[in-house]
Amino acid sequence: MQVGSFLQQLDPSHLTAPHRSLPRAVRCWSEEQLTNQLQVPVLKSRDTEAKKKGGLLCDLVLEQDNHHLNSRSPVHVWGYFFDCMESERSQRMGNACMPLKRIAYFLCLLSALLLTEGKKPAKPKCPAVCTCTKDNALCENARSIPRTVPPDVISLLFTSNSFDVISDDAFIGLPHLEYLFIENNNIKSISRHTFRGLKSLIHLSLANNNLQTLPKDIFKGLDSLTNVLFFRDLRGNSFNCDCKLKWLVEWLGHTNATVEDIYCEGPPEYKKRKINSLSPKDFDCIITEFAKSQDLPYQSLSIDVFSYMNDEYVVIAQPFTGKCIFLEWDHVEKTFRNYDNITGTSTVVCKPIVIETQLYVIVAQLFGGSHIYKRDSFANKFIKIQDIEILKIRKPNDIETFKIENNWYFVVADSSKAGFTTIYKWNGNGFYSHQSLHAWYRDTDVEYLEIARTPQILRTPHLILSSSSQRPVIYQWNKATQLFINQTDIPNMEDVYAVKHFSVKGDVYICLTRFIGDSKVMKWGGSSFQDIQRMPSRGSMVFQPLQINNYQYAILGSDYSFTQVYNWDAEKAKFVKFQEINVQAPRSFTHVSINKRNFLFASSFKGNTQIYKHVIVDLSA
Which residues form the LRRCT domain (predicted)? Predict the structure, then answer.
């Protein structure tokens, strides 16, 4: 409000009334009142003496913020002081003092208003690089987004500017902005919160820049309005249609915005393809990795996982301490902790088997014989119930458990010159020797699997025995005799240390481990296994396939190099290199799934046992 217009609104009677009758915005004080009220010195006129009557101080109080205009200064406005002493002159003048008081009120008020006028905030000026009208602003040749654009603009255009990055909150303080055009620049990057606060925006153009991608959620909070018209033009950019832009494809699929056709510049398979025509299914943005989770401070050979009493457990064979260490999952600390142990001598395998609700553990040892333990739930400990005949099992190297026609079996691969690989069967009270196989062949590994000889025949149980003295031998289950019969061997695969199998879409594959040379992946063709792939081995004693959710892996350990993790490529129908992990002298890899978490246990003959967490990463997030 101008000073003149405000004074014109005053009733002349205010000038003759006592100071309490002045307008509400004005207060008048005596010198003593003001000094006591504000506790600051007051500027006095030279005529002020000890006797003062009618002396007034006036200040203007801003009603909106209740703040004294002159509160920042210790010196306050001293209007005018008139001394109306009861002198002979004053007695002769009678009420002559009254006009002077009126003038004092007026001048006091005028002084306050002038100060108020000077304190009003100035309106933001149009930036030097912009041309502004009441509602519009056009900015050219700017090095950055100006921060002093008038707040009332409705339309804002940036063109032919030199900046290439737009940061967060670039347009804050423009609550009325409806049309934003950032066109014909060299913009390469826009931050996620660039447009934050533009609640009134109904049209946005980013045409003819150098954008390759847009951050996810960049339009969050903008497209919640009704009938929004974002992206009338995104043309003229170099969008790379990879996982970082997957969110835009999803957004285009459900937004109400009107969008002109925009095209991909990359990758090559999508070049010149309309982004509007892409589907989220066109993007393969989920990757996985094995991340180190926990170290166990001991060496190990075999590692097995089992379910018992509605909980998951892991059992680890420690060759140097001779123990079977049982681990359970700590639901509070989110780590594996010790549960129990079985103490023995030179333990190489601790194989659990749960029959109905009873847990048994077959403990294979290089010295002192091998034994079978039972978990006593009342005593809450393991009790030895049976010895395994030492004449047949002299140097056990591997154990496999399986079930055929409701009967439980386990087979021990014996690697001694005078031993027998032997199958044991559960008879209700214990395990007894059922069949001996492959005598004196120094077997190092045994694998149980089911394969079909012809497409019309159901899969039947088979055993594959690996030996250091001959090629792997395949045994087939004979239902009539309830025995395994030697069927065939795997040609051209001498010196195979171990064989492990896996399935993909109903097809059966095997991974064959060689210490030096080439390890192999082979596929069952109906009557024999056929070569699919070779991997170079550098001191390998384990080539373990394992499946985690929908991901099929194969892990090739190495004593002389990094362990190689391979991932199955469904299109190529073979494994591709995926990741390297560092494990000293690995001997087994085991998948453990607990509480929707997936872990990889890696045993080590020379170092710490390692636990890796299987991590799924969404590249589009």
Answer: 237-286
Strand pairing category for 264-266 and 203-205: unpaired
Query: What is d(CA 520, CA 525) in angstroms, rounded to the nearest whole number?
Result: 15
Which tokens belong to 31?
A: 């010198």
* CA-wise closest residue to 82 among 59, 56, 58, 64: 56
**Cα–Cα distance, 509 to 550 (Å, whole number):** 16
Under 8 Å between Cβ of 229 and 203: yes
Q: Are 462 and 435 in contact (CB under 8 A)?
A: no
Strand partners, 307: 312
Sign of CA dihedral 10, 11, 13, 19: negative
Prediction pTM value: 0.71
User: CA triplet 321, 326, 330: central angle to 5 degrees?
Assistant: 130
Residue type, 605: F
Q: Residues 249, 280: contact at Cβ < 8 Å? A: yes
d(C-alpha 382, C-alpha 576), whole Å: 43
**How many residues make up the chain in this entry?**
621
Residue 169 corresponds to which tokens in the numbers above? 């909150």
Measuring CA to CA, which residue among 194, 182, 180 is closest to residue 158?
182
Q: Answer whether 363's CB lies under 8 Å from 371's CB.
A: yes
Which of 190, 219, 191 has its CA nearest to residue 204?
Answer: 219
Mean pLDDT by 10 residues, the chain (621 residues): 42 41 42 47 41 41 36 36 39 49 57 52 81 94 92 94 93 92 93 90 90 89 51 82 92 79 91 90 91 96 96 96 96 94 96 97 95 95 94 93 97 91 95 88 94 78 91 95 92 93 96 96 94 96 96 97 96 95 97 95 97 94 79
User: In angstroms, what CA-CA distances link 520 with 184, 503, 510, 545?
Assistant: 57, 15, 8, 12
The values of phi and psi at residue 78, to 5°, are -110, 105
How many Å apart are CA 449 and CA 402, to the nearest integer? 9
**The token pair that represents 34 in the structure block:** 């003001």
What is the spatial distance between Cα 364 and Cα 350, in angstroms, rounded to a whole number?
Answer: 7
SS (HEC) of 76-141? ECCCECCCCCCCHHHHHHCCCHHHHHHHHHHHHHHHHHHHHHHHCCCCCCCCCCEEECCCEEEEEC
Q: Please tell me whether the peptide bond between 267 and the residue prior to it is cis, using omega within 30 degrees of 0.
A: yes
C-alpha distance from residue 590 to each of 86, 173, 381, 542, 555 (Å):
111, 58, 25, 11, 10
Can you read off the two tokens belonging to residue 489?
């061997």
Long-range contacts at 377-381 (CB < 8 A, ≥ 24 apart): 381/340
Contact, 202 vs 177, CB < 8 A?
Answer: no
How many CB atoms lie under 10 A from the CB of residue 306?
Answer: 17
Per-residue tokens: 513? 């481990």
The backbone torsions φ and ψ at residue 493, rounded to the nearest 5 degrees and listed phi first, read -135, 60
